[in-house]
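Cont'd.
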Amino acid sequence: MVKKEIVSAANLKKEIEEAKAELTSQNKKLKLSVKTEAKKKVNKKKVVTKKKVDKKKAVTKKKVDKKKVDKKKALAKKKADKKKAVAKKKAEAKKKVDKKKAAAKEKVDKKKAEAKKKAEAKKKEEEAKKKEEEAKKKEEEAKITQEEIWEEQLTEEEIIGFQIDKTDMDKLVNRVTEMIAGYETKGILQNILWRKLKLSSRDGSRLALKLERLGNITREKILENGRWTYLLLIKKIPISTKSIENAPCLVCPVEGKCATDGEISPKTCVYIEDWVLTELKTKKRHETD
Ligand code: SF4
């Protein structure tokens, strides 16, 4: 402190007041300084606390975030695992189906191969059979028929004059001709016809030659089941008075008035109708006998 010389009471008073003011000012400054320090300390504490809290919060947040991330990851992993499981299941099912398909295909292929083998064997067999048949056919074609031998050996008179013991030949010729006519343009094989008529093959063949020479039928040489035979076809139906001997017109009292377009006509005549039906029945009975 600077020692001042006291000049007067007024000066002293003044100096005392100035010293007081300075003291007050220093006090104020000191107080202010103390307050500031305390505040600073409080603020520092607050900052530290805040930092701690923030750090805690950050750690907690980090933990929460990590948990969230972990949860998300776990969910995603679960989903992925589920997806994988489903895909695996599907793949296994597909594998099974593929295996089944492969087995079925193998079976089908095996069957096909067997069928092919069989078909080839059958084809070979058929070819061999065909060859055999062709050889047989050629052999048969080279043969001459019994009819051809007879035609060579017999005269025309002998063929036309053919007779079967104890048989009315005219009647037989008419009957056989009518039967052949019944088969129209299709004709009938001679062996079948002879069987129906209970004729021997020899008599039947000679009869067919006779019918042909009489101009009633034609004979067509054909191979049937690898053997020569003849198809008999109608050429001309012989007119027999027997066929009209029961016709109602012969004794009809109104025959003079009967005309195709008249009031009395064969188109509407019941006698004609009855007669035709009776004749047809008789003919059929003869054919089946
Ligand atoms: S068709 Fe009849 S009506 Fe005419 S003549 Fe013959 S039976 Fe008589």
